[in-house]
Known about the structure:
This protein is mainly alpha-helical. The protein is built from two helices and three strands; from the N terminus they run ααβββ. The protein has a three-stranded antiparallel beta sheet with strand order 1-2-3, with helices on one face. It is elongated, with a radius of gyration of 24 Å.
Amino acid sequence: MIEEKPKGFTLAELMIVVAVMFVLATVITLNLVKATNRAKVSEARTFIGKLELAISMYKMDTGSYPPDEKGSASLRRALDPDENDPIRNTPGWKGPYLEFKDNEVNSKGELLDPWNKGKDDRKHIYVYRADLDNDSFTCPPFHNKTSFDIYSKGPDGKSGKDEKDGNEPEDGNYCQNGLDDDGDGIVDELSFREDKNGYLEDDINNW
């Protein structure tokens, strides 16, 4: 009796299996990336909300917004200064208004967003600009000329087309209710726009 040799996979069948596995791996990876990004967007939204509340408390106590000379580094210092920092002597100051964890601050004292790559990352940080001269026709800020801008530039670390933060309409002009709530001529929102090099930005008057 002649035994039949077991049939193996043909080259074509193997190629089909490999192709199917590649497609499945790609789909799973893309879904995982999207889910991770959604989680980071949610984290950034929550953090911006906390910052806005702390900024409001600071403004109520001192009569002005926190300084913005060094962006979010100045904001962090105003809200949660070291024990002997002279900013604690600012008239009306009753902080700390928000305490920051070590992994939320980079080596320059700037506030890191959820897409950060570690302590030396200066690209994935929250951007803070305030209206310190009370002149609504000057910047900063770009969007909320009578208050402040606080936003994350998202995963790509860009807020628009030209690598500069908040200097063009493409940097964000969408609002939760579709209105210009603070009357600054720009409709803005806390939103992530993948199709617009999106970033997270909001105005306290939109909450």
